[in-house]
Amino acid sequence: MTKIILKDIPDLHKIDVYEANGGYQSIRKAIKEMSPDDVTNVVKSSNLRGRGGACFPTGLKWTFMPKQTEKPKYLCCNGDESEPGSFKDREIFEKNPHQFIEGTLLACYAMGIKAAYVYIRGEYFKWINLLQDALDDAYKKGYVGKNILGSDFSTDIYIHRGAGAYICGEESALMNSVEGKRGYPRVKPPFPAANGLWGCPTTINNIETLATVPEIIKNGAEWFTQIGAPKHPGTLLFGVSGHVNKPGVYELPTGTPLMTIINDVCGGVLGGKKIKMVIPGGSSMPPLTPEECLTAKMDNESLKEFGSSIGTAGVMVMNEDTDLLKVLIRIAKFYYHESCGQCTPCREGTGWLLRILKRIDAGHGRISDLDLLTSVALNIEGNTICALGDAAAWPVKWTIKKFRADFEACVSKDDVDVPVLNKVHSMR
Amino acid sequence: MSLFNEEELKKVEEIKSHYPQSQAALLPVLWMVQEKEGWISEDSMKYVGDLLKVSYEHILGVVTFYTMFNKQPRGKFHLQICTNVSCMLRGGYDLYKYASEKLGINNNETTKDGLFTIEEVECLGSCGTAPMIQVNNKEYYENLTVESFGKLIEDFKNSH
User: Fold this and answer.
1) DSSP string, A306-357
2) Which of residues 3-62 of A touch B (CB under 8 A)?
3) Which domains does chain B possess?
4) pLDDT tens for each residue of A328-356
């Protein structure tokens, strides 16, 4: 089985072990034999797509950076990893930090960047220290800093610790956070490649995306396109959690059947129970029904068939005993807590979703509440500066759509009356 | 007020050198303050404002935006219990209820002896080892049960 990042090599996190296994050869090759455009072109033809959730083609993103500019250019490496169900980047910091550092160097070389900021969520204290240790070793050996490997290519890499805000995983909020501001997403356009950190051209890439790049440079674009699903090639670090016997992070080719992951890789559903629902890519992604799980393949194109997406590949498995109303309340609570408050539909709408769901849980729900929830979700979706609004709306909209019978069982069949609507107001 | 000693001031200068503007050093410097004081007071914010040439109002806005910055003192052991979906499925709320009952405090409250604060927190990116808690924004304690969590609390008490 092809493994690109989490290879079965003991102590790979140590720089000498990484070097002994071909580490830092890709950046050497790039500096000695390739132009910056060559590097971008290889990444582009590899069809590598971003691992942060949006699946945007990485090489294409790199070409958006202006070539002729007086301004300094920046790279932000997104290790905010706060989407519930996602815990893959910490695995990279722990098991193979140098491959991520090398990928960052390649991105900097390709785009002419002299400073990269690695934004890591504040809770990852341990992993920030692990990456800092790796970075110190890379500096000592001359892989990072001035005149890398004796060339005229120089770049610095700095770690920037977040402080507990999910929204800072959104690229423009991340940049504001690096600048020492509240993590408010920015209105786009202008896009970061034109106007990013301190108004300068900036690219933001996910940690896993960057960690994949050295292997693409080493083995070639064609090698990469042969792995996994043709339209979304490579491997993904699947973080499997919830009701499975062996939860954890597993690197598998894109397009791996979901049931292979649950049954063969993770040892089946906990207690030998049946599946109730699976969220395939972090809590914002539309869920899958047990029937859909049977045929679902884990790549972005295949999951579109079920109205869902691969997201961060954080697979949350729930068995037949799971109370979906409680799950949806917990998800709604998260997005309500994490909404930055800039846009009215998200700030107010996430609160409405939570309050209506809680009212149902308290036994005061009406059948029309299910349509009310969907209506609120539809009024958030697409009406906000950033995708947090969508992330809050999708699970509510899709879970009710796909599991309507479960929710109907929680509410009274009577129609809503005015006093009840008033009661929603008073529950603020 | 002089919060930082010479060595710490040197560290601030080093952090500032990472960025083209000193305001960008705000989050790392606020982390230094919290590390030293346990929380971030109004006086500390003013001190940092003078240090980085950033207004107190801006800093107040930043401190209140980020959940991990403590706006008031916390107990010696700040138990941050994840109850998000993956932890919830594996008993995260059992841990929370247990701690709340055992210590006699609710969310964001501190025991009278100042030893423990409990807080229900959002996903900590430890879903494969759920349920779990973080203590004092640092160590993760993973794959917990109510029993092992109870022992952990006892260990903290005894280590005090």
Assistant:
1) TT---TT-EEEEEETT--HHHHHHHHHHHHHHH--S-SHHHHHHHHHHHHHH
2) none
3) 6-65 (1.10.10.1590), 77-159 (3.40.30.10)
4) 999 999 999 999 999 999 999 999 999 99
